[in-house]
Amino acid sequence: MRRYGLSDGQWEQIKDLLPGREGHVGGTAADNRLFVEAVLYRYRAGIPWRDLPVRFGDWKNVHRRLRRWCESGVIERIFRHLAADRANEYMMIDSTIVRAHQHSAGAHKKKDADQGIGRSRGGLTTKIHAIIDAAGKAMALSLTPGQRADITEAEPLLDEVDPEVFIADKAYDADPLIEELEDRQITPVIPSRRNRRHSRKISFSLYKKRKEIERFFARLKQFRGIATRYDKLKSTFLAAVQLVSAIIGIN
Fold first, then answer.
1. pTM of the full predicted structure?
2. Are 126 and 117 in contact (CB under 8 A)?
3. 3-state secondary structure string, 4-59?
4. 139-155: average pLDDT
5. Whether residue 219 sits in one domain with residue 119
6. End-of-domain residue from the set 32, 65, 82
7. Angle, to 10 degrees, between the axis of helix 59-72 and the axis of helix 32-45?
8. Do 62 and 127 fall into the same domain?
9. Host domain of residue 129
């Protein structure tokens, strides 16, 4: 297997989800595997697109095809298909901040266009929000500007899953979220903030499972193009996060 390439097992699980596959209406794409490996190589190594090794072909074509797959929802379909095989015993939510490189700024301004880049004391940043299942696989993902509060993405992401137990840290201790969990008969394992008048009792043996999401983010950030955002468009960066999350989930 080439450096940063797909294993045969990983390829078997995604090949039938791609456009141009054998038996698919329209043209065929015999180089689908090479293209996916080119995208993974770029984000794993954190290099500019123009520095892709020549074996992947013209870098402009690779980038153009990635944008086409983003716009047509191909990568999101891969992520959601693999996320459908989930362990519902418990799930957990958290976020991580990644530095946005100066080259990620400057996308063409459109009305109400949110590229998920914010300014904070540390400069330009993007925040990745994730829910993972008991097996450590990503179930739901979103991006916001780095200064956005974690709690703002909890309910939208929770709409995509249905766990028996929901684990989070104190940043997610908010009455509307707790009430929604209880209405859906999901057990919240969320420590109470200090200013709560009446603290909730939680299972700390379950709360310790939260280390799994820290491990997920650590694996995600082994891809240098994820740990530092270079993409101008939110849709491109989100697609990269979805693809990498899907691949590491089937290792």
1. 0.91
2. yes
3. CCCCHHHHHHHHHHCCCCCCCCCCCCCCHHHHHHHHHHHHHHCCCHHHCCHHHCCH
4. 94
5. yes
6. 82
7. 100
8. no
9. 86-232
